[in-house]
Amino acid sequence: MAIIEEENLVAAAAGVEQLVRDLQRTVRSGITKTEKWRIQQLKALLKLIVENQDSLLQAVFTDLGKPAHQVVFTELLTLATSCKLAIKELKQWMAPKEVPVPPLALPGTAFVVPEPLGVALVIAPWNFPISLGVDPLIGAISAGCAAVLKPSEITPTVSSILADLLPKYLDTDAIRVVEGGIPITTALLAQKWDKIFYTGNYTVGRIVMAAAAKHLTPVTLELGGKSPVYIDDSVDLKVSARRICQGKWSFSDGQACVAPDYLLVQESIAPKLVETLKETIVEFFGEDPSTCAELGRIVNANHFRRLTRLLDDPRTAEKIVHGGERNEQSLFIAPTIVLDVPLDVPVMLDEIFGPILPIITVKGVDEAINIILDLPKPLALYVFSTNKAVQERFVTETSAGTVGINETVLHVAVLGLPFGGVGESGMGAYHGKHSFDAFSHYKGVYHKRMEADADGTFPPYTSARNNLIR
Ligand code: NAD
């Protein structure tokens, strides 16, 4: 490593250390714990979003080529809704909850009191670069934490606009943005945090968890995985195809953690479903999707090459039944369907995170469930069936962050649902009240009244024999 770079890193590490100390001091002052401060900050964040919509949309377009309405729908509206919910319900979330006290502990009362974990680190990815950084911040602020947001270096324009705007609206003694790539993130991870909230891939998830383990810091890991879709012959194919195509291609061109990764289709309907999906792709994105403004682009050349390598694997390439066109210069890959690839080709082994959709025909539910159980637990699992018994089998016999029935992706908007993975798709959850919980410790407080204690509760326990469990 060049000396100058090394010096910069040492300086950065020292800066990060000082930053954490400053934030710890703010938390210790008690300001972030007050309801007033939390509400002020949440209102300021809402104002930031409302007042800077145009520049935020432009920043995402510059980095990812995403059309404005997509960003409004998947990022700005989501954030505004999260802020408004937190503002409306904060008092209730913060209120201590009384729990029953057993006779042995009388006379007294007991409460569960949420307390802020302290100073939090939020590490965000690039695919929804505003909301996946700012939404966890809403949780941190609601819970009364100070926090550092580290946006993704892969979306530098968004990273820089967040670093510019957040200090203009929020209390800089408590909320800070640190920009940078792996060296800065490594320096941040070396610090002792009270909470780390990471969204991204599971390889880095392991690095984050190992760093957190050194300080016994609790983590939320929002990771990814292969989210399957099962479809049987009970459904309306047109309605299903529209919902699948929207979830796969309309939000970030398949580069969404909850996008359908592959389809498991009952064999009797497979040919008809493939045709319906093809028609729907043309209906949504036109005969030449490379000119369609509805579709975003692959984030960078590395991801473009990773995806084309998946497609160019000979056992996959021969199975392309739709799409496959690509243009490295414009980072475009057409919505692509591959039919009945072997389960051991690269496209079926790892999360695709791009516009390729493998379809595997299966005899029925048993085969589909076995395929799903052979892979790591997914972040989302989708079942398209009107048969209640089939729906129930997927809910009870598989494990996934969330099960969506006859839908894809939209469950993310249901703020009452915890959003998070299980197993390799992550741990912990957020959204709505769950975001408050992610940054809170639920502290037990038991208060015994200063009165004489009941007979037999102190030595000598002569009456203990009377208390034997019968
Ligand atoms: P990314 O490359 O932007 O990385 C995420 C963050 O990790 C960035 O801030 C980056 O600086 C940091 N990072 C990268 N390498 C690091 C290292 N070696 N050490 C420390 N920090 C490092 O984003 P990504 O991981 O490519 O995002 C895509 C993945 O994220 C997919 O797997 C997707 O499924 C998952 N994801 C999950 C969710 C969710 O909510 N569960 C949401 C979006 C994306």
Would you kindly provide a written description of the structure presented here, covering whatever features stand out?
β15 (380-384), α15 and β16 form a beta-alpha-beta unit. The chain is 44% helix and 17% strand. The protein is globular and about 80 Å long. The protein has helices at 3-29, 35-51, 53-64, 68-94, 131-143, 156-169, 182-189, 202-214, 237-250, 270-285, 301-312, 314-317, 346-349, 365-374, 388-397, 433-438, and strands at residues 97-99, 108-116, 119-123, 146-150, 175-177, 195-199, 219-222, 228-231, 262-266, 320-322, 326-327, 332-333, 336-339, 356-362, 380-384, 402-405, 426-427, 440-448. With 470 residues, it is an alpha/beta fold. A seven-stranded mixed sheet has the order 10-13-14-9-8-15-16, with helices on both faces. It has a six-stranded mixed sheet with strand order 5-4-3-6-7-17, with helices on both faces. It has a three-stranded antiparallel sheet with strand order 1-2-18. Residues 123-127, 132, 150, 152-154, 181-182, 185-186, 199-201, 204, 207, 222-224, 257, 351, 353, 379, 421, 426 line the site of nicotinamide-adenine-dinucleotide.
Rg value: 25 Å
Helix/strand/pairing category: alpha/beta
Count every beta strand, where a strand is a DSSP E run of 2 or more residues. 18
Q: In terms of quaternary structure, what is this?
A: single chain
How would you write the strand order of the largest sheet?
A: 10-13-14-9-8-15-16
